[in-house]
């Protein structure tokens, strides 16, 4: 079964040197999905959440303590509400008591990743961009997540091995590397939202007994890949850059297909 899910690429202006920083959380090593990896906050849709932006906002609040609301929320209020939510109180009731409402419009679609067929747990996850609200500060929940980091996309990629970054994070951070400001990220997200396409990696054998995860625009995606597929036309706006992932030294690397003219 494939479960709907939502993920939040939380950004802020970099504290030094310009550009943007992205928030990452480290999952517990014994987690059943992406254990030990640094990922964007997110999780599966709850019953009754018809808008996945609501799922994204709830998960961001539970996992990172950031509340995207239609009115300003102070840090102390967000912390107090989060403690109660993590202890099991329903978020809608908590927000109603505080006179607050989630703000789905604070989230902008960025991507749609579907877990490959080879995985036992599969998710159809929409990725959304959100800007850190003024006066709030994210923190890991010390339940599902055990550490955190604010990093520029380039710095995160340079530490990909240490952070155990999964392919969707590697790809997303690569796509953000050329953005110089928060507004640039939001503009990029809006362009991507205009022509969405699901990304379902497919596994294919490689020389030497290894394997690669092929992205939908890889030249061998249809002919060599196995499992569920969603091919992407070569002229699709998202069909750019290296088209496959390989695992080297326990690190996922986004590389070009053999013989491709695309730079890796």
Topology:
Elements: E1 2-13, E2 20-27, E3 38-39, E4 42-44, H1 52-64, H2 75-86, H3 91-98, E5 108-114, E6 122-131, E7 145-151, H4 153-158, H5 160-163, H6 167-176, H7 182-193, E8 198-199, E9 202-205, E10 211-214, H8 221-224, E11 244-248, E12 251-255
Q: Number of helical segments?
A: 8
Work out the helicity level: 25-40%
Provide the CATH topology of the largest domain: Nucleoside Triphosphate Pyrophosphohydrolase
Number of domains: 2
Q: Overview of this structure, please?
A:
- The chain is an alpha+beta fold.
- The chain has 2 domains: 2-196, Nucleoside Triphosphate Pyrophosphohydrolase, CATH 3.90.79; 197-264, no CATH class.
- Helices cover 26% and strands 26% of the residues.
- The chain contains 8 helices and 12 strands.
- The strands form 2 sheets. Strands 1, 2, 3, 4, 5, 6, 7 and 8 form an 8-stranded mixed β-sheet that branches. Strands 9-10-11-12 form a 4-stranded antiparallel β-sheet, covered by helices on one side.
- The radius of gyration is 18 Å and the shape is globular.
- The model has no long low-confidence stretch (mean pLDDT 93).
């Amino acid at each position: 079964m494939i479960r709907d899910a939502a993920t939040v690429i939380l950004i802020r202006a970099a504290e030094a040197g310009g550009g943007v920083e992205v928030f990452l959380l480290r999952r517990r090593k014994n987690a059943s999905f992406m254990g030990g990896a640094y990922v964007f906050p997110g999780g599966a849709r709850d019953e009754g959440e018809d808008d996945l932006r609501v799922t994204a906002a709830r998960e961001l609040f539970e996992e990172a303590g950031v509340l995207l609301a239609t009115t300003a929320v102070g840090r102390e209020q967000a912390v107090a509400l989060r403690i109660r939510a993590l202890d099991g109180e329903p978020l809608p009731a908590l927000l109603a008591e505080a006179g607050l409402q989630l703000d789905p419009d604070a989230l902008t679609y960025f991507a749609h990743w579907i877990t490959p067929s080879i995985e036992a747990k599969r998710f159809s996850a929409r990725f959304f961009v959100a800007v850190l609200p003024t006066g709030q500060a994210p923190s890991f929940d010390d339940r599902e997540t055990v550490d955190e980091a604010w990093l520029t996309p380039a710095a995160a990629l340079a530490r990909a091995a240490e952070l155990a970054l999964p392919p969707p994070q590697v790809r997303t951070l690569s796509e953000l590397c050329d953005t110089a400001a928060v507004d640039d990220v939001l503009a990029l997200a809006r362009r991507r939202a205009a022509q969405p396409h699901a990304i379902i990696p497919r596994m294919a054998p490689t020389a030497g007994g290894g394997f690669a995860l092929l992205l939908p625009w890889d030249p061998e995606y249809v002919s060599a890949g196995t499992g569920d597929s969603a091919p992407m036309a070569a002229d699709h706006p998202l069909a750019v850059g290296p088209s496959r992932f390989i695992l080297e030294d326990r690190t996922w690397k986004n590389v070009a297909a053999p013989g491709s003219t695309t730079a890796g």
